[in-house]
Amino acid sequence: MTTREHARPAGERPAESSRTGVSAEPAPALPERLLAARERKGVDLYRAERDTKIRARYLGALERGDYKALPGAVYTKGFLRNYALYLGLDPEDILAQWRRERGAEAVGSEPVIVVPRPIQAPRQGLTFSPAVFVAAILTVGVLLFAGYMTVQLLRFVKPPTIAVTDPAQAVTQMDDSTTQYTLRGMSIPGATISIGTSGPDKIIFTAEADGTWSRTVDLRRGRNEFEITATDPETGKQAQNPVRILITVPFSVVQAPTLTLDSPADGATIQNGAIPISGSTTNAKEVVVTASYVGPVGVVTGGKPSHSPSPQPSPQPVSVDVQSDGTFSTPFELSSGKWMLTVTASSAEGKTISLTRNVSVGYQGVNLIVSVRGGRAWLTVWVDGEMADSANNRTFTDGKVLTFNGRQSVVVWTGSSGNTYFTLNGKSLGKLGQSGVSETWQFGPTGPPKQTQHP
After folding, report:
1. How far apart are CA 362 and CA 68, in angstroms?
2. Is 54 exposed, middle or buried (0-12, 13-18, 19+ CB in 10 A)?
3. Taking the model in full, what pTM does it have?
4. Which residue in 187, 211, 283, 397 is deepest, having the highest Cβ count within 10 Å?
5. How many CB atoms within 10 Å of residue 306?
6. Residue 67 per-residue DSSP state
């Protein structure tokens, strides 16, 4: 299915040409015109969102003709006018086509203001006739409605603010006995405040009616990082610049690091995927993973492998971030063969501890690791001809890693080829195109990837 078919409203089908006669191709519908104009401009929805300040989900609704997903006719007209100017289209022509396609539904959704008829002749003296009273009420009502719409529009366009008043500095060092700290700040009244910690959990609460907020957080020895942001509960907009706070609690005694490996197990065999490295450490600021090639994966007879070993280059060492609770994890990509992994934890004072694991790596079919780096990327993936649920017309942020396994093929349609990196059967291919360029690549068990059309 093409992108234009995705954008066509439900129930609408392209007109088929007669085999015996000639018919003119109908003019494209408004959603198709908008989608085609954006594709000619060569931008994705998120680039258009940044340029027009209109949320991507509303731009997508315009390109699909899903007007029920929009906040109303007044906003829809404003969105269409601004989007048409951005795409180089005539805004009046776009609005006229919208009215034609929507008919009475578009006109009926706009507010109707009844203006009182003018007084035929002024009366002598100061009098308050019923007509004047009604006119005054209507005028006040119109002004209140206009003010309300203006406030709502400004609130919708403007993201909430977020500020931290305590601690006063972004980087703070506490005494080694400190176990808690109360963060304080300001935002908009009733904002949803989110404090992200070094662990997987987030602290979410609501600001006071005057916009002030405070929350006590636990501190561990070492680095305690917090990312604080605010969300307007009515518009769903987040603060543009989250605040990052670093609070350090020093270790009272210099100790040698400890190291525990949860994965992989010694002697493990990995098929179709990066080796998961995970564990925990104490008193360590860095964990480094290295690998040494031992030999091929094959049947051993008489103490010798059944085929001649083909040495593989050792991959670059990988440095793994240690979380505030001492845990660490990372995928480690290796080509086919037997390998010895070495995991080393180092303290700030230079003390180290290492553990080794022997693993075997063998690939079957197509193993493809897709990584999003340098920005966002929209992805749709087909595995052996079937669309993957984990990447079905979805946009992923920087740092997202996805793994797909197929018998015959894996096809990836990316909206930003320069932000999409590939590793095929343990071999890194890097990015295959430019940022912001939509491309489709097909990967098979053997041979290089091929640029193709999406299924």
Report:
1. 50
2. buried
3. 0.32
4. 187
5. 10
6. G
